[in-house]
Amino acid sequence: MIVRPSDDLPAAFARLGGEEDARVWSELWDDLCHQGSVYDDSFLALPHLAAIAGGRAPGAALDAVLMAGLIVSAADGERTARHAGDIAALLPVARGLLDAATDDAPAFVYLLQCVLAFEGERVWSAGRLEGLFELEYELECPACTSALFIALGDHDAFAPDGDHMTADPASARLLPADPPTLAPLPARLHRTATRAGHEDIARGLTRLFGRATCPSCATAFTVSDEVGKNH
Q: What span, in angstroms and rounded, lies between the C-alpha atoms of 54 and 68?
């Protein structure tokens, strides 16, 4: 029988603190959060991850926070309450790491999701901000269900999937939100990205929470509404 890390979590986490940490973390990710999935056993890791993040056990705080953030983003009310102590311990560590993530856009976005997860947010913490550094989202028009490719980069356009970036620019232009008009959560995300010097992320947020018009049926919609329910 192959012994998986979740079969003996204390022993698995006890392997950290040496030259094979990268391998140990890889095995833990594969077992507990395989391809971004969260399982019942995943939540059993939270006390260990909180101890690592807090410096009470060997291992890298960043790895611990990233894994814990993904796990907590999938927590329901009962699990959130059950692991409240661990989550409370992880939050300040995640905030500190986020403040220091000024040069790495993907790490900044991942940590931003972790902070939201530990604060109890369950929509944008669950991987839905990752299009901000990938600079694209794929979703469906809410009216005609056409597959749409939303580009947040320099082209600032969207088109039916399979015909990327070829729609008429007059009908395919995104209308970014004006930062002062953003709702409280996106406004906070925009301020955080701006203060950290991540201008591309801040600009992407105005487009993510802006409006677009489907080039197939001319229906106007808020991009974030469709991202929130389709991802």
A: 13
Q: Which two tokens stand for residue 158?
A: 């969207």
C-alpha distances in Å from residue 137, one per residue of 55, 158, 208: 37, 9, 9
Q: With 80 as the cut, is the pLDDT of residue 155 above it?
A: no
pLDDT band at 150 (very low <50, low <70, confident <90, very high): confident
pLDDT digits (tens, 9 = 90+) for 170-180: 334 688 999 99
Q: Are strands 147-151 and 220-222 parallel, antiparallel or unpaired?
A: unpaired
Q: The pTM is what?
A: 0.88
Q: Tokens representing 6? A: 């979740």
Q: Mean pLDDT across the chain, nearest whole number?
A: 88
What CA–CA distances, in Å, run from 203 to 36, 60, 77, 155, 207? Answer: 26, 31, 33, 13, 7
What is the spatial distance between Cα 46 and Cα 152, in angstroms, rounded to a whole number?
34
Which residues lie across from 136 on neighbouring strands? Answer: 151
Q: At what angle do helices 84-100 and 105-119 cross, to 10 degrees?
A: 150
Contact 36, 71 (CB under 8 A): no
Contact predicate 176/206, CB 8 Å: yes
Cα end-to-end span (Å), the chain: 36
pLDDT reading at 169 higher than 50: no
Q: Give me the pLDDT at residue 162, please.
A: 46
What is the residue-wise DSSP string for 43-61? Answer: HTTHHHHHHHHTTSSSS-H
C-beta atoms surrounding 113 within 10 Å: 25
Take residue 112 and report the two structure tokens written for it. Answer: 């931003």
Alpha-carbon dihedral angle through residues 222, 223, 224, 226, given to the nearest 10 degrees: 90
